[in-house]
């Protein structure tokens, strides 16, 4: 059998928190995954391409057994935090993202995000 390199191994959809933004998940079997992976390694499990209004998410993270829709919402909220506040600062994006989830009534995701923010910065947010 030939080992197929799949260029189509992605999933694309509108961001749940802002439908003017697109989200693309790139899975490890994708032809270009290895080169994109370096960006994930620098920036975490996702990154934002502001001029393309696109969030790119690491499919390796999405396919982990612990990953839920709430984790997807947290990633989206975080990247929108970078977009809306026009900053690369992670803490600013996290806090903005948390508030956005609250505002959009995504309370389960917000609860998980609050724990994550506590673990990262030792601050209690509400
Ligand atoms: Zn970030």
The radius of gyration over CA amounts to 15 Å
| Distance linking N and C termini | 55 Å
CATH hierarchy, class: Alpha Beta
> Roughly what percent helix?
40-55%
SSE string, helices as H and strands as E = EEHEEHHHH
CATH architecture descriptor name: 2-Layer Sandwich
Q: What count of structural domains?
A: 1
* Percent of sequence in beta strands: 15-25%
Count every beta strand, where a strand is a DSSP E run of 2 or more residues: 4
Characterize the structure shown.
The chain has 126 residues and is α+β, with helices and mostly antiparallel strands. It has one domain: Zincin-like. Helix content is 48%, strand content 15%. It has five helices and four strands, in the order E-E-H-E-E-H-H-H-H. A four-stranded mixed beta sheet has the order 1-2-4-3. Helix 4 runs antiparallel to helix 5 (107-121). Zinc ion binds at residues 78, 82, 90, 93.
Any descriptors?
alpha+beta; four-stranded mixed β-sheet; 15% strand; globular; Zincin-like; binds zinc ion; 5 helices
């Amino acid at each position: 059998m030939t080992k197929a390199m799949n260029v189509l191994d992605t999933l694309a959809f509108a961001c749940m928190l802002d439908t003017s933004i697109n989200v693309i998940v790139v899975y490890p079997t994708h032809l270009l995954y290895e080169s994109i992976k370096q960006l994930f390694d620098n920036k975490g499990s996702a990154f934002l391409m502001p001029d393309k209004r696109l969030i790119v998410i690491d499919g390796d993270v999405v396919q982990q057994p612990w990953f839920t829709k709430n984790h997807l919402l947290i990633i989206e909220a975080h990247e929108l935090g970078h977009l809306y506040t026009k900053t690369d600062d992670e803490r600013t994006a996290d806090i903005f993202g948390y508030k956005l989830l609250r505002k959009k009534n995504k309370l389960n995701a917000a609860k998980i995000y609050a724990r994550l923010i506590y673990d990262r910065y030792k601050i209690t947010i509400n």
